[in-house]
Amino acid sequence: MWHSIIFWILATLCVGCALCVVWQKNPVVSAVFLVGSFLALAGLYLNLSAPFLAAIQIIIYAGAIMVLFVFVMMLLDLHHPLDLYFRFTKPKLPKAIALGLFVWLLCTLILATAFPLALPESSQGFTITQIATLLFSKYAFPFELTSLLLLVAMVGGVVLAKKK
Amino acid sequence: MIPTVGYSHYLILSAVLFTIGVFGVLFRRNLIIIFMSIELMLNSVNLALVAISKFTQSPDGQIFVFFVITVAAAEAAVGLAIVISLFRNKQTTAVDEINIMKG
User: Cβ neighbours of residue A159 under 8 Å, at least 6 residues apart?
Assistant: First the structure.
């Protein structure tokens, strides 16, 4: 019962914030709404009994990535006429039709798949120990590759943003 | 009376969020907003992965979410560096004014 109530509140919040992100004129306001959407998603992870992921979501997404966005917006001079940016790119109608078909297709596929309606109330989430054991045994190689990816991203970011 | 929430609800929420992200990428012309929409899409996929992880009762889905978050962080760093160097050269972040490649 509480699970459903929390889901509907958080889902409304999440979709509302996401719509505000794409409808806002000012990118800084968009960023704030995006943080709201991420926090609502973290709540949904808690609802799905994944507390560690909820913490990771808040720390990395709402903390690190959004701070990066806001810093870049601070570096850029975004004082051009905002209305010019807000005009939607053309052609509008084919894109809208494609989007509608896309969401219809996704929802049809999801509803065609036979998921049980109710989530098992009793099932506990996974402990950090279980997740870490899997991460360092079965997924040890992808984990190591991730460190390489982060190194490449760091060097790439420095090289790209450096003045000539 | 509130209807019972199942896995389909989570997946449909994820689909809706993904579509909102695609909307932002297709319709907005501000490069930073487009980046935020991409983050939104990555998050919607994460939500689907967490729901499926609970459905299959295996933590593999959550591990995938870690990797997605890592890739998203790397993508944000490199992408925003590209935005900065682009802004330095063109003084704009509007995608339709960035047409060096005649795309």
Answer: B81
Tell whether B33 is within 8 A of chain A (Cβ).
Answer: yes
Q: What is the CATH number of the domain that holds B92?
A: 1.10.287.3510
Q: What is the count of structural domains for chain B? A: 1
Which pLDDT tens digit goes with each residue over A31-49?
999 999 999 999 999 988 8
Q: Do B36 and A60 touch (CB under 8 A)?
A: no
Mutate to test the interface with A, among B36, B64, B92 (most CBs of A within 10 A): B36
A118 and A145, same structural domain?
A: no
Domain span at residue A153 reads: 126-164
Q: Give the domain extent around B85.
A: 29-97
CB A44 within 8 A of CB A11: yes
Partners of A132 on chain B (C-beta within 8 Å) are none
What does the pLDDT profile of chain B (103 residues) look like in tens digits? Answer: 667 788 888 999 999 999 999 999 988 888 888 999 999 999 999 999 999 888 888 889 899 999 999 999 999 999 999 888 888 887 777 777 777 777 6
For A28, A51, A120, the CA distances from A69, given in Å and listed in that order, are: 9, 25, 38
